[in-house]
Amino acid sequence: MTTPAIHLVSAVALVVATASAVPRAASIEFLSTWKAPDARSLNFAGRKVAGVLITDDDGLRVSTEEALAREIGARGPVAIPAYRIIPREEVRNADAAKGWFSRAGVEGLVVLRIVKTETQKVYSSIVWSSGYYTTAWDYWGYGWANVYPIGSGRNQRTITVETLLYDLAEGKPIWAGVSQATDPKNVQTYMKELASEVVKRLQKDGLVKKS
Fold this sequence. Notes:
The protein is of the alpha/beta class.
């Protein structure tokens, strides 16, 4: 291979490596879902359904529960963010939460919980182009005298969320799902998008009606 051709191949490789190193926007992927064998389309029209995010981050909880309520409410139920029902100081107490939901007349719950966040270092490739590629032995001597680290690392974050749909009249879960996203630019924005995707998935699985 001639020197110009080698330079061209190296340049193409550099473009490919650089493109693959650019962080991509987070996309939501459902790793698994489950539906109760006897589950059927829920007629929650006109009935109260609460959206819940289990988290210690009050700001994230409020924005996510509001997003859940909007998505659920667009499909017929009277949707309520749980933070409007349960006082903050009692939200961790199961008996207290049950009482508040019961008194509010809530018949369904859509519950989201962040179960895992992981951060790992990922590396991009760097291709170096030079005239020392002319022959294997020219490159051999140059290569061993000039060893470079492979790329610069960046942190990549993965968020895993579980979702449960409960019919409180039956007292049992009727749908569950585990979703995952890599490198969400903003967690609040991502959780709002997830709220929308969860309700769309419930619709796809025949558990809620189309908006």
